[in-house]
Amino acid sequence: MTEPSNATFNSGLIDFIATSPTPFHATREMARQLSDAGFREIDEADHWQLEPGGRYFVIRNGSSLIAFIHGRAPLAESGIRMLGAHTDSPCLKVKPNAKVTSAGYYQLGVETYGGVLLSTWFDRDLSLAGRVTFRSASGSPASRLIDFRAPIAVVPSLAIHLDREANRNRSINPQTDIRPILMLADENPDEFTFSALLMAQLQAEHPGLEVREILDFELSLYDTQKPAQMGLKGEFVASARLDNLLSCYVGLDAIKRADDAQSCLLVCTDHEEIGSASACGAKGPMLEQFLQRLQPDVSARLRTLDASMMISADNAHAVHPNFVQKHDAEHGPVLNAGPVIKINANQRYATTSETSGLFKMLCAQVGVSVQSFVSRTDMECGSTIGPITSAEVGVKTIDVGVPTFAMHSTRELAGSDDAFALARVIQAYFARPQAPGRFETQ
Q1: Which NCBIfam families does the protein's record reference (predicted)?
Q2: Which residues contact 85 (CB under 8 A, 6 or more apart)?
């Protein structure tokens, strides 16, 4: 596979995010690209026979994915070069009884998913996407993905004339203030049902599909503004869901380019923004069960894990020029200065001196600058899938990420050099012949 330029990489990143308004769509797109790159999908319901030199991927819940290259080097000696990211992002999700009628408008009842920066959802052209479960013509339950694509909803701000304190002391009630408007209500409000809307969209996106009854759905609102490379010199990438589809794309691009000399694994799980505690989250058994099926023998599996390492990739907080005081003065990452190693004394990040040292060596190997992030000691620190995976699986781990502004906004901002730089480091990591989890201690 031809090595990409920075511009080519960013173009692919932008297209990937635009195609992935929900974790379901992101997983489907990763599966498509992996299939095109020669990876074979395996089903958890089948018996597995994973052979050295083989390329595989497995999906759980339609929203989490593991891609694996079974290297030709012995697993227990060479280990597995793992990279982890997450497919979900904070958003507004539609409630089961979706239709709300107020003051002559049809609205959607929504709830917040994860740590949403609510103020950024006002006055945006919003669309709707996700998974719909229905009763098929055979009478069995079935599911399909939908994406309205067009801007069909909006959450208008309250005019400042009606809230003179809006610029000084504004609070947002997530129950009452962020219900999106769909359209004007007609004289017969019972004629419009949300189920009928979903049924029509299913049939529009999946011609010939027979839908007897809408059973349930998992739908998210998203901003229809396209991702873009921007800035006076094109030095930024602006998009929704950079946290953390950017890291998913970095891992996807790197594993597609890896050869089969060494064993490499990409795991992209759902539900990180709400704690990862699900069957398809990092706190669930998905990765551990994959490794058990890869190596049923406990001793061989533990030897492999001892030789392995996980890079947990999730965006890092860049120093905001208007809020410099929110950062530790000696640990403030800046955009386009390279990937960030994230460190926390209380294990909110899983980085150790050994895993950090190896990552710094990889950065030097490919000529990429590296930065460090530590939260102010008087501020609470966030976390990632890194500590969870390290604790659940028992693998040495480092937390890294691309520096980002406006995390959890509908429009986040990263440097146009940093994702490509991280991808180059991950490519070197996947190609490393030495066991990444083995360090000299004497």
Answers
A1: PRK02813.1
A2: 244, 247, 248, 250, 251, 266, 267, 268, 312, 313, 314, 385
